[in-house]
Design a protein that fits this description.
By secondary structure, the chain is an alpha/beta fold. Helix content is 16%, strand content 29%. Strands 11-12-14-13-16-17-20-21 form an eight-stranded mixed β-sheet, sandwiched between helices. Strands 2, 4, 5, 7, 8, 9 and 10 form a seven-stranded mixed β-sheet that branches.
């Protein structure tokens, strides 16, 4: 490495996963052309990387928040482009970072010529900040992980339905806890001593999780918030509709009907499952298919029993959809729910659609995933969207979610009095 070339990550090389960093290079020759690279490994050992070509200014400096990439994984001024544009070394692989104790470690480097490294720096991107508690939960039927901000509280509480399939993801829950929320993320199956698969879902499980949160000594307010994604979106809608104690619900690229599995409550069937037709899954030359049109139409008479009567919910909704979701037609589902609420004289909702964004809207600055294996479809599926637009949508969405919960989750003391609110 060149002793005079310096790569700086500001304000620090150690930050939270959802925080931006300023990447600057100094000590280059005037107008020198170099390649900037980022490289990381996820929890499965899958390597993700990106690169971009930059030209130094007259002083031999490059600032990623000022200077455009000339070629590579992205083009133009993109301060965090090296992060969101990282791709797996193999096709159809999604970035996995589910354990909050494992930071996202990214090695940035500056290279010239045939890959000669001039400078490098490591960015440690934490999922959980100092002082946030992480407690595995095995209480009654509930299995998950509870995250608590430091201090006595009271804090607003959120139930995170991030994952639907086997296993458990802590990423979104821990990042919300960093902001001053008590967050419980739960698994439905395939975790700990839970069954490996299921054929039906019982709303009682979520009722138990809600009561667990409400009784926690750090939780204030009358009720809790719920945040969802994909299939768990309709579970969040059902919880908000049928269960007490749900004050605010975030729905991200979900469905308006109960999908895939029949839903029960108190041993009685609430909604049959809206199913899908694999014959409507469209193959593509990329090796990943389009599932957008596979779900059956919930408005047909034979499927109407699967529709969730969200007009009965008391708390507000935040609907967030992606215009180019290729997993299923979440934009149409959102429009359907907005129309339903308006028809019943309801205005307890906000809705937003992100152009050119794909299905997996997550906390920002992780690698964009265009396609990966879909457990329910049983094949590789395109998630849709375009990387740059998707990354911008995630930044906006993440702020919007926090604002929505702070506004709508009542608490005995204002969350804004807590130092985490502005973090």
């Amino acid at each position: 490495m060149s002793s005079q070339v310096r790569l700086k990550l500001l304000p620090s090389a150690r930050c939270l996963f959802d925080e931006p960093v300023q990447v600057k290079v100094a000590g280059l020759r005037s107008r020198q052309v170099v390649t900037m690279r980022a490289r990381s490994t996820d929890e499965r050992g899958m390597v993700f990387s990106s690169s971009a070509t930059y030209k130094a200014d007259g002083s031999g400096e490059i600032h990623l928040d000022r200077d455009p990439s000339l070629s590579g994984s992205y083009i133009g001024v993109e301060p965090m482009g090296l992060l969101w544009s990282m791709k797996a070394d193999r096709l159809h692989k999604r970035f996995q970072k589910n354990n909050s104790l494992n930071p996202h470690v990214v090695k940035f480097s500056v290279e010239e010529g045939e890959g000669r490294t001039l400078a490098e720096e490591t960015n440690e991107r934490l999922l959980i900040r100092d002082g946030v508690g992480r407690i595995p939960v095995k209480e009654g039927n509930v299995r998950g992980v509870l995250f608590t901000p430091p201090g006595d509280g009271p804090f607003p509480a959120v139930l995170d339905l991030y994952t639907f399939g086997g296993g458990l993801s802590e990423k979104r829950a821990s990042l919300l806890a960093n902001k001053g929320f008590v967050v419980l993320t739960v698994a439905l199956y395939g975790h700990d001593d839970m069954p490996k698969d299921i054929k039906e879902i019982h709303l009682d499980y979520f009722e138990e999780a809600i009561e667990f949160l409400r009784k926690h000594d750090k939780v204030g307010g009358k009720g809790i918030g719920i945040i969802s994604l994909s299939k768990s979106g309709d579970l969040a809608l059902s919880a908000a509709t049928y269960l007490s104690g749900v004050e605010a619900t975030v729905w991200i690229n979900g469905h308006s009907a109960n999908t895939i599995f029949p839903l029960y409550y108190k041993k009685s069937l609430l909604h049959p499952a809206l199913l899908f037709d694999t014959g409507r899954i469209i193959p593509s030359e990329s090796g990943a298919s389009i599932g957008k049109y596979a779900m059956n139409n919930p408005l047909l008479e034979e499927n109407k029993a699967s529709l969730i009567p969200i007009e009965k919910a008391k708390g507000p909704f935040l609907f967030l959809s992606s215009e180019e979701d290729m997993n299923w037609d979440s934009k149409t589902c959102m429009d359907m729910m907005v129309e339903r609420l308006k028809h019943h004289g309801k205005d307890n909702f906000e809705s937003m659609c992100y152009p050119r964004a794909g299905h997996y809207l997550e906390p920002p600055y992780g690698p964009y995933c265009p396609s990966s294996f879909h457990g329910l479809w049983g094949q590789r599926i395109q998630w849709g969207g375009e990387a740059r637009s998707h990354a911008a949508a995630e930044v906006h969405m993440w702020k919007k979610i926090q604002e929505f919960f702070r506004t709508n989750l009542s608490c005995d003391e204002e969350i804004n009095n807590n130092s985490f609110a502005s973090s």
